């Protein structure tokens, strides 16, 4: 904008002189505001707040107050860091941005602490079991012919690995169909009884594992006179896994849009077909996560297995006959020994257990990792064959009725579709 626009029209030569001498301000290009990512001021504020918090903690613990302890020093440093960071951020941003920056730092700190704890657990277990893991016999032999004083070249955890796989397979065979069916019932059939079942499931999530083991021990072993076995341990583990799977699957099924089920029912599909072909495929990845959570809860149980499966040092592949041991129970018995070789076997068995859980998680993620609407090649071929059969069936039905081909079928080559507009030969305007 120039000065001429603010001068009256009668200014005459004065306006022309001012317009010639006034500097013209160039228009600056619009620059988009940077929303995410670190900025230089943000990084400097973080570093300055961290240094200021460290100085405050050093003064309080070394000069001003008689404080002591490493944990208190870390907490004081972090609290002072947050306070100084909030003050520095408020110099440039408003209140909402300050709260956003502070909460972002808190969440990143919590995530870092959780990752650090996980890395310490995994790293410490692998480090303590490094003496037993390199031996090949550790994965192929049992402890029947090895004692506490034998070297690590004798004995292994093959019996515990096989027992864990058998027990978790029995528990999954019981838990997955019952858990998913109960979750579908809670989600699709609301009512008083479904609310009662949901309350029972939520209460069972806090059930101590020793209570589940005692229940199976009292009913299966004392009441029915059965012996301790891997089957009884599978029953006890399934009791612990079932509420986790039901609760997680129920939450996932609630996230399925209601418009999908309404569209399926509007097309005439019954409720069971809608659930089987629409609801469950849509929530497939979430249901796999629910099974993963239940598996993680059941595969690390020790007390139910101790009460229902007993303990043995020999390999037993029959879950219905004789005692059976799992990896958590083997770890519990190994680390109780004062011998360094047995302790190394215990940490090695714990590392194998973590690796086994990781493999099971990967398998479950591969099975249920496809998103809604994504089909495998086999499912796509089966869907195409079903579509061709439907087209042939519709064409045969219409031919019997004399109604011509199916309206959705492709017209023959060179033929004109009955729904296409008539050709314009120029007679319309005559």
Automatic annotation (TrEMBL):
Main location: membrane
Annotated segments matching region Disordered: 371-430
Comp. bias intervals (Basic residues): 375-386
Keywords of the record: Cell membrane, Membrane, Phosphate transport, Transmembrane, Transmembrane helix, Transport
InterPro entries: MetI-like (IPR000515), MetI-like_sf (IPR035906), Phosphate_PstA (IPR005672), Phosphate_transprt_permease (IPR051408)
Xref: Pfam families: BPD_transp_1
Membrane topology according to the record: Multi-pass membrane protein
Every ABC transmembrane type-1 domain range: 161-364
Localisation: Cell membrane
Transmembrane segments: 43-65, 71-91, 103-127, 160-186, 206-225, 231-253, 274-296, 347-368
Superkingdom of this protein's organism: Bacteria
Family: Belongs to the binding-protein-dependent transport system permease family. CysTW subfamily.
NCBIfam families, per the entry: 3a0107s02c
Protein's job: Part of the binding-protein-dependent transport system for phosphate; probably responsible for the translocation of the substrate across the membrane.
Entries under PANTHER family matching the protein: PHOSPHATE TRANSPORT SYSTEM PERMEASE PROTEIN PSTA (PTHR42922:SF1)
Protein's UniProt name: Phosphate transport system permease protein PstA
Gene that specifies this protein: pstA
């Amino acid at each position: 904008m120039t000065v001429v626009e603010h001068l009256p029209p009668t200014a005459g030569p004065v306006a022309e002189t001012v317009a010639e001498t006034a500097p013209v301000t160039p228009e600056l290009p619009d620059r988009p505001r940077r929303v995410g990512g670190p900025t230089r001021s943000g990084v400097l504020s973080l570093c300055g707040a961290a240094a200021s918090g460290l100085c405050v903690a050093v003064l309080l613990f070394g000069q001003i107050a008689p404080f002591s302890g490493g944990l208190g020093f870390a907490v004081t440093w972090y609290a002072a860091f947050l306070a100084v960071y909030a003050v520095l951020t408020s110099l440039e941003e408003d209140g909402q941005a300050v709260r956003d920056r502070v909460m972002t730092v808190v969440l990143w700190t919590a995530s870092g602490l959780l990752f650090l704890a996980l890395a310490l657990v995994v790293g410490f277990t692998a480090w303590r079991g490094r003496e037993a893991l390199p031996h090949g016999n550790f994965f192929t032999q049992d402890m029947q012919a090895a004692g506490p004083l034998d070297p690590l070249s004798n004995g292994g955890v093959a019996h515990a690995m096989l027992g864990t796989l058998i027990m978790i397979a029995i528990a999954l065979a019981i838990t997955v169909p019952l858990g998913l069916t109960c979750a579908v019932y809670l989600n699709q059939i609301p009512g008083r009884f479904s609310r009662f079942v949901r309350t029972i499931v939520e209460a069972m999530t806090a059930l101590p594992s020793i209570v589940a083991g005692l229940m199976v021990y009292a009913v299966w072993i004392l009441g029915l006179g059965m012996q301790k076995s891997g089957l009884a341990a599978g029953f006890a583990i399934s009791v612990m896994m079932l509420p986790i799977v039901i609760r997680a699957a129920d939450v996932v099924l609630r996230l399925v849009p209601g418009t999908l089920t309404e569209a399926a029912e509007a097309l005439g599909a019954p409720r069971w077909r809608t659930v089987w072909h629409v609801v469950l495929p849509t929530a497939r990845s979430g249901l796999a996560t629910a099974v993963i959570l239940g598996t993680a809860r059941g595969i690390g149980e020790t007390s139910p297995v101790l009460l229902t499966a007993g303990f043995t040092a020999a390999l037993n592949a029959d879950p219905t006959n004789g005692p059976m041991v799992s990896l958590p129970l083997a770890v519990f018995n190994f680390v109780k020994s004062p011998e360094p070789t047995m302790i190394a076997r215990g940490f090695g068995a714990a590392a194998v257990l973590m690796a086994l859980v990781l493999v099971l998680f990967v398998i479950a993620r591969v099975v249920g990792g496809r998103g809604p609407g994504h089909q495998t090649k086999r499912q796509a071929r089966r869907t195409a064959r079903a579509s061709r059969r439907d087209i042939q069936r519709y064409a045969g039905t219409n031919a019997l009725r004399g109604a011509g081909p199916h309206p959705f079928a492709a017209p023959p080559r060179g033929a004109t579709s009955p729904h296409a507009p008539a050709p314009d030969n120029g007679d319309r305007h005559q």
